[in-house]
Design brief:
The complex is a heterodimer of chains A (269) and B (297). With 269 residues, chain A is α/β, with parallel strands linked by helices. Helix content of chain A is 41%, strand content 25%. In chain A, the strands form 2 sheets. Chain A has a 6-stranded mixed sheet with strand order 6-7-8-3-9-10, with helices on both faces. A 4-stranded antiparallel sheet of chain A has the order 2-1-4-5. The radius of gyration of chain A is 19 Å and the shape is globular. The termini of chain A are far apart. With 297 residues, chain B is an alpha/beta fold. Chain B folds into 2 domains: 233 residues, Rossmann fold, CATH 3.40.50; 59 residues, no CATH class. Helices cover 42% and strands 21% of the residues of chain B. Chain B is built from 14 helices and 10 strands. The longest helix of chain B is centred in the middle third of the chain and has 18 residues. Chain B is globular.
């Protein structure tokens, strides 16, 4: 391996090679052959309609392939290590540790009977082996970094006591608390008001730059606002991929063009 | 000048009682002429749904008055048939507003049976007419809602609202549950119905793209107060409140908004956005293709 190749390998956070996903019975191909890479510091958007397979791809990367679906071919590498064949016990160290996740609806992804802080503390203790006091200090510091107003009070708040925007800030904090290599964000702003969406996109863009991120969204305008690269997915396949400006302003595939036109984007920023 | 169809005067709505009583809307007022669309815009919890629910009789005003065709609207139980039929509503989630056990035919026929003006044959003709109005195939009539797409279900909900020949249609986030392509199609249908039936609308939304397409007037609500209102050209092209400007930027060009370093830093921090941070926002809004189409009169 040459020095240049070694450097590239080091920079590569996520490498999906010829990924194939099928339903088990009856056998039906959902994703025939998908390649996607993400480098350190990069935010990549996977954009498509419901049913295009974008969320399934995200689940496969997070080791959360739903029952009845299996990885039938290809490999997924995280920081140079193959992860698609990990056992569940090994996954538990990766998820929440090297991979942080942000979902669409923070209310249903937080445990309603636990305080926001206790969920962050539990994650920090489990993955970093911190004692209670140190984990709590880290939780407060993380929520503060997420610009959550009154971070000290929020640690002891229950999820329902926070607004939708505050909950999503806390969710991003939970994803980031163990300094993951990769953030998976599945429709992170879809459930929020437009002005709050913009706040969360600004936060996510800043925070994801320290790691690498895969953002799943149906909203090409939101992807355009935060992503370095965009991959457009249609019926299980990536039909177009490139730097954000190119995909938005010089789309090659008619489907990309239709997504772009429906979003009524402005001139190039 | 035509007499207003709807006149809202100093409307206030409060929830709770005694010490817990809290106003969620206060001092709202505007007139709406027949056949005109008023967009009600605001964040979740701003009071925009409360305003239209008061008009529909689903919330009781604590202050002020709502006049419909010149007559003050009493609480729901005391409204005349003319009032009840004249104001109809379409909700956000068409899946939840249609009975899953009823066929589309039953959904549309039931209100006609309750009113009791038409015999069986006339009712069937009217049901087909309603399907034509919303451009749905008659073959769908014998299916249940679960067999229809989200866009088709919302068309059925609109057809049901039209069965009473309303003069005012309230659409409370009626496009929000649909994808972009269906949003465009259903908003085109609503505009067509507005022209054809001289239908006035209260169009609740925080999607500025459909507001731009649908509305003649816009009323922006923030924290239970109307922060600005006026003709769509005035509010969208010369927005005065910080909230309206931010909402427009979020809807029309989030990339440009985040590319502005001051605005981006303020957004990341959350909380209120200063006028300085919003200084560049009008350029962002003005550069949008949608805003450069011929401005609405």
């Amino acid at each position: 391996m040459s020095v240049a190749e070694l450097n590239t390998a080091h920079e590569m956070v996520l490498d999906i090679r010829k990924l194939r996903l099928e339903t088990v019975a009856p056998r039906r191909v959902l994703i025939p052959n998908l390649d996607l890479t993400i480098r350190r510091g990069e935010i990549v958007g996977l954009v498509g309609q419901s049913g295009s397979g974008k969320t399934l791809t995200c689940f496969a990367v997070g080791g959360l392939v739903p029952p009845g679906v299996r990885v039938a071919g290809g490999e997924i590498h995280l920081e140079g290590r193959r992860i698609d064949n990990l056992a569940e016990a090994e996954w538990r160290a990766v998820r929440g540790g090297r991979i942080g996740m942000v979902f669409q609806d923070p209310l249903s992804s937080f445990n309603p009977v636990k305080t926001v802080g206790s969920i962050l503390i539990e994650s920090a203790r489990r993955h970093r082996g911190l004692d209670k006091a140190a984990a709590r200090a880290l939780a407060v510091e993380t929520l503060r970094a997420m610009r959550l107003p009154g971070a000290d009070a929020c640690v002891d708040a229950f999820p329902h006591q926070l607004s939708g925007g505050q909950r999503q800030r806390a969710m991003i904090g939970l994803a980031l608390i163990n300094q993951p290599a990769l953030i998976l964000a599945d429709e992170p702003t879809t459930a929020l008001d437009p002005t709050v969406q913009l706040q969360i996109l600004a936060l996510l863009r800043r925070q994801a730059q320290q790691a690498a991120a895969l953002m799943i969204t149906h909203d090409i305008a939101a992807a355009g606002a935060v992503c370095d690269r965009i991959a457009v997915m249609l019926e299980g396949e990536i039909v177009e991929e490139g730097p954000t400006a190119q995909v938005l302003y010089e789309p090659r595939h008619p489907f990309t063009r239709s997504l772009r036109d429906a979003a009524h984007l402005g001139r190039r920023a | 000048m035509t007499a207003p169809l709807l006149s809202i005067q100093n409307l206030g709505v409060a929830y709770g009682s005694g010490r817990d009583r809290r106003f969620v809307l206060r001092g709202a007022g505007f007139d709406l002429a027949p056949g005109q669309v008023m967009a009600i815009v605001g964040e979740s919890g701003s009071g925009k749904s409360t305003l239209v629910r008061a008009v529909a009789g689903l919330a009781t005003p604590a202050e002020g008055e709502i006049l419909f065709e010149g007559v003050a609207l009493p609480p729901l139980g005391k409204r005349s048939k003319t009032m009840l039929h004249g104001i109809q509503m379409v909700f956000q989630d068409p899946g939840a507003s249609l009975n899953p056990r009823q066929s589309i035919r039953t959904v549309l026929e039931e209100p006609l049976i309750v009113v009791g003006k038409l015999d069986g044959a006339a009712r069937r003709r009217r049901v087909e007419e309603l399907m034509d109005l919303v451009h749905l195939d008659h073959r769908l009539l014998d299916l249940r809602p679960s067999a229809l797409s989200g866009g088709q279900k919302q068309r059925v909900a609109i057809a049901r609202a039209l069965s009473m020949e309303p003069r005012l249609l309230i659409a409370d986030e009626a496009l929000s549950a649909l994808d972009f392509a269906n949003q465009d199609k259903v908003s085109a249908l609503l505009l067509e119905l507005k022209e054809r039936l001289n239908l006035a609308m209260l169009f609740v939304s925080h999607d500025m793209r459909s507001v731009r397409r649908m509305a003649d007037h816009v009323c922006v609500i923030e924290g239970g107060q109307v922060v600005e209102q006026g003709p769509v050209a005035e509010v969208l092209y010369h927005p005065k409140s910080a909230y309206t400007r931010l909402l427009l930027a979020a809807a029309l060009n989030p990339a440009a908004a985040l590319a502005d370093p001051r605005l981006s830093a303020a957004l990341e921090a959350g909380g209120p956005i200063s006028d300085e941070a919003l200084a560049g926002v009008m350029d962002i809004i003005g550069a949008n293709a949608l805003m450069q189409e011929q401005s609405p009169s």
